[in-house]
Amino acid sequence: MGFSVGRRRFLNGIILVAVCHLLLLYKSLLMNCSIPDDPLPIPHEFYQPGDFIIGAVVSQVGFFYDEVSFTSQSTEELSELTMYRSVPKNYQHLLALAFAVKEINENPKILSNLTLGFHILNSYYAARMTYKATLSLFSTPQRFVPNFRCHSQNILIALVGGCISEITANVATLSAWYKTPQMVPNETHQYKGVVTLLQHFRWTWIGLFAVDDDKGDLFVRTMVPMLSQNGICCAFIYRLPYWAYTEEMADLVFQHGQSYNNITEGKANVFFVYGENPSFYSLRILLFTTTFLASPPLGKMWIVTSHWDFESPSMQKDWDIETFHGSISFTVHSNQPKGFKGFAQSIKPSWTRRDGFIQGFWEGSFSCSLDSSKREGEEKPCTGDENLETLPGTLFEMTMTGHSYSVYNAVYAIAHALHTSNKSILKHRRLAHGWKWAFQNVQPWQLHHFLSRISFNNSAGDTVHFNENREIVAGFDITNWLMLPNGSVVRVKVGKLDLQAPSGQELTINEDQIVWHNIFNQVLPLSVCNDNCYPGYMRKKKEGQAFCCYDCAPCQEGTISNQKDMNACVTCPEDQYPNKDKTQCIPRVVSYLSYKEALGAILATLAISLVFITILLLRMFLKHKDTPIVRANNRSITYVLLISLLLCFACALLFIGQPGKVTCLLRQTVFGLVFSVAISSILAKTIMVVLAFMATKPGSRMRTWVGKRMAVLIVLPCSFIQAGICVAWLSTSPPFPHVDMHSLDGKIILECNEGSASMFYCVLGYLAFLAIVSFFVAFLARKLPDSFNEAKFITFSMLVFCSVWVSFVPAYLSTKGKYMVAVEIFSILSSSAGLLAFIFFPKCYIIILKPELNSRDQLRRIRHERI
Asked: Is the separation of the CB atoms in 360 and 61 below 8 Å?
């Protein structure tokens, strides 16, 4: 225990001595600022002093070879080894920062008596050099001692993120240690905008390109589910190399050549690309070299994120870029600050000695050399008076791009935050001679509070402010890129993505302004897994394939599809039905047996005619009521039969016209009752013939039954039984009006629902029973000797009657709608007409044409002959 305490005291003493030595060393450095020079300074930098320094890491120059080392190379060796390649278009980012600082320093309303400066270093598209550049920003200029501040060093107050997300992320790793604000817009919102754009143009089968790094992995994991949730499928996912060094170009072509062929042969005509400018350079290498391998040209529709600006390194400036003609990109919203174009026009190679980027930019853009000692071959010298406006858009643009506009706004946001901080210090009553010193002691982390609250209008007229996540609120412009044959690049704004708009209205696009790739002949390109399913068909999933790939199946009966690529056919409303092609719903036609149509008019006319004929017969029989032929077989029953037949003909009219509640109740019941009376009357007449024959025998007691009493005893009970059935029917389940929309296509059938089908068939069954009994009795009595024997006429009439109603049942069941009603009317009329014709027409013949036969003597003679 004692040994441990002693060892602890010894170690504490050593630490205390070491701390004392470090404090003495720090004091010495602070007093003398004798910090050694940076052994490997970054060659490309742009420094302008000021009271406050804004740091920036840009990507204008890259390495040809991936052989950078911090341990073995000097600055001269590094320059000779790497052979820089310039990306001229990114030089505008530097100019945007310098222009913003210039405007702020010349504006007395912002940071009065204080100046802004900047320190810009190059990242070389490499993580190692990005970290080196960031640490250099936190060191004394031309020194490399991070976290040490000399008394003559200006204050690094904030950082402006690079135009490449990986560079920005690497800078953020170090800036977070120092809690230094880093200004960079959040671009993830554009993914939702791209999905909305794909849905707008109905592009459901797309190729997905993603840079082959961690950011690309995150993009794929985020984007693929988002696309699937919105009905969009990925035909393929192609991973782009982040950066192709010279020694990797051959491998790039051979490894990705087969993939290129698969891409060109697929049905996906729309490519959505997530990548940054280095991956764009790699893709251009692949597209350029495949032309020498007899590969087909790639005519597709490209949709790119805001990271791509279709810029060319100096080595690719003469390469054809027509493949990307008609592309659409989501670019960070930009506007044109006043005076920027003039500022850009004033730039010359000698505009400032502090700019370490200008030489590479100028030589790479104009293919000339500013240093005569290093000029090689036939390389022409630069005059210094070359005009930037003559450069194609892939190398430089005189109008401020989206990334440059973000840099411009970020610088102004920092300046306004400092200005607000300045007013806050004055508010706390600093002494007049000491406020500047106090303000210069503001720490970078203190700006976070002020940055989250500022809002201002820039010189371009846009409002700049931060959201609740402390991010600059920046929308996106939808840009259509035109690659002209002379190498020029024209960007046309065809819409916008407004993140502040209400839900569902964020995307605005003008299709008429969009220029498509020449291969599409200025027609909206299609990008689907298979051909569309047109109206009348629905999509049917293909087993084992993505849900965007489907077959087309015709709509089922009763359903339609009125749009292309419907997932399911829809059922028409009840009052409508599908047309023949199943592409739309047509209003149904109301159908019932009407007096206005030919069939209804004919049946009504026939029924009324038979009613009048029956009335004439009844009148004729009443007129000749005392004649033997009328008095034979009980003339009262004859009158009852004629009246019941008249009612049978009349009840047919109840079946014609639009069904109502009353007519539905009366139709079948009246029909059943009057027919029961008619058949009962016929049965009574037949029985009367039998009884009359039996009564003529000597000593027969049947004479007492021959007469009206017998007829009443037959007609009334038979009719009352049918009446009882009808009452039971109406009491339990009466008929009612019904609308049938399903039995016939295109028809709304207005009909009477019988309520109880069993009761309906009971009525018909009872009539059939009476008819059969009457038929057999009449058949047996057809040859009995009697004057004017009606039995044989009743036999024929009942044969017709039974034949009609036997045929009625299958015909009734096989028809629907008004034709079913017409069948029943025809059966009523034909069966009643058969009874009328076969029973009464022979008597009419005698009454009208053979009156001499209608006498008592003649009846006796006929009876004697029969006996």
From this structure: yes
Residue 646 amino acid letter: L
- pLDDT above 70 (res 149): no
What's the CA gap between 409 and 29, in Å, rounded? 38
Is 598-866 a CATH 1.20.1070.10 domain? yes
Confidence of residue 720 (pLDDT cuts 50, 70, 90): very high
The rounded mean pLDDT for the chain is: 79
* 380-381/205-211 β-pairing: unpaired
Among candidate residues 9, 13, 10, the one with its CA nearest the CA of residue 21: 13
At residue 612, the pLDDT reads: 95
Query: Cα separation of 545 and 550, whole Å?
Result: 8
Are 517 and 325 contacting, i.e. CB atoms less than 8 angstroms apart?
Answer: yes
293 vs 405: CA distance, rounded Å: 41
179-229 pLDDT tens trace? 677 676 566 677 888 899 999 998 999 999 888 888 888 889 999 999 999
192 contacts: CB under 8 Å, gap ≥ 6 = 226, 506
Which homologous superfamily does the CATH classification assign to the domain defined by 190-305+310-335+474-520?
Response regulator (3.40.50.2300)
Within 8 A by CB and 6+ apart from 602, the residues are none
pLDDT at 438 over 60: no
Confidence bin at 163 (pLDDT 50/70/90): low
The Cα–Cα gap between 712 and 719 comes to 10
* Angle formed at CA 516 by CA 515 and CA 519, multiple of 5 degrees: 140
d(CA 185, CA 206): 27
Domain ranges of the chain: 1-32, 45-187+401-411, 190-305+310-335+474-520, 537-587, 598-866
Q: Do the Cβ atoms of 213 and 239 come closer than 8 Å? A: no
pLDDT of residue 116: 92
CA–CA gap between residue 215 and residue 211 (Å, rounded): 7
Identical fold between 45-187+401-411 and 598-866: no
- Long-range pairs for 498-505 at CB < 8 Å and ≥24 separation? 499/189, 499/473, 499/475, 500/473, 500/475
Contact 509, 224 (CB under 8 A): no
pLDDT tens readout for residues 476-525: 889 998 888 777 788 899 998 887 778 778 888 998 899 998 888 888 99
45-187+401-411 has which fold?
Rossmann fold (3.40.50)
